[in-house]
Amino acid sequence: MSFEPDGPTDETIAGPSRAKRGGRMAGAIASVLVTIAFTFLGLLAITFFIGRVIPIDPVLSVVGDRATPEVYEAARVQMGLDQPLPVQFFHYVVNVLSGDFGRSVSTGRLVSDDLARFFPATLEMATLGIIIGVLLGVPMGVYAAAHRGRPLDQVIRVIGMLGYSVPAFWLGLVGLALFYARFGLVGGPGRLDIFYDGLVPPVTGLILVDSLIAGDTDIFFNAISHIILPASVLGFFSLAYIARMTRSFMLDQLGQDFVTTARVKGVAEWLVIWRHAFRPILVPLITVIGLSFAGLLEGSVMIETVFSWPGIGNYLTTALLNADMNAVLGATLVVGAVFILINKLSDVLYRVIDPRARR
What we know:
Blueprint: H1 10-53, H2 58-63, H3 69-78, H4 85-97, H5 111-146, H6 151-165, H7 168-182, H8 207-214, H9 217-254, H10 257-264, H11 269-277, H12 282-298, H13 301-306, H14 312-321, H15 325-353, H16 355-358
Helix pairs in contact: 1-15, 5-6, 5-9, 5-12, 5-15, 6-9, 7-9, 8-9, 9-12, 10-11, 12-15, 14-15
């Protein structure tokens, strides 16, 4: 005799629920990919429009201002600038998606090769800068909020104001004058001393990582001595912003009823601060950190110029001065793509930290 269950079993219930979860996850992933695609397409349209309306003739930047009309027209046809704008935009999108940004007038190399060479230098410096900013800025903002009105809170607020008001190039020059020229505590401009340049095979483009992969500790510590000062300058500006925003978020949470209830119940103050008040601010704080990191990648032009840092900011400045539009648009696209990726990464972290965002 066999007995059949009167109702649905755990397996039959779990099957549809797993299928629903899988469907929701697939839908969320598809939505993110579509959003990224349309955002990037909009970025392509903006850069294409800028390249056409800016008062710089890309043909003259290639052939020179002494070229004959015949040479000028031949170059214009070869560059596809004689075609209608929709056709030019289509070819532009196809070339960019295939990794072809054209050739740089400034360096004579493919722009894609230049970006692969210069962008890792900016990424390395900005990453170290945001690490410094987060490790120092978040605790400073939390402490300032927890001790509102006390002397150290005032000091932290002054540091935040300095971060907004002090010019980046001035702080970089002062740092070089003191810590490099006067005391010799750090390396000078550039990523490495000249006799170390080219000794490490480029694997990732990040000199700190590549030197460790090669097992060359001398080059690693030499690179540390060069990057620590510009990264600290960048870290100071991100620290000021992160500390100020963290303090603002914490003050709002410390005034909530659930924090007062936790204190009345006798919960330890450090638990009240870090568990009850700090956890709810993680989501907006991720946005602040993400925007700060993207800002460091985009706004490190002055620091790279002061420290002769071979990054994308320095590359972009040189390209602008030489009217090198292929390089300008390629670098702009890379920075814009980084903004898009950081924003989407922030959205993913929202869902990991806050379960309500998953629904």
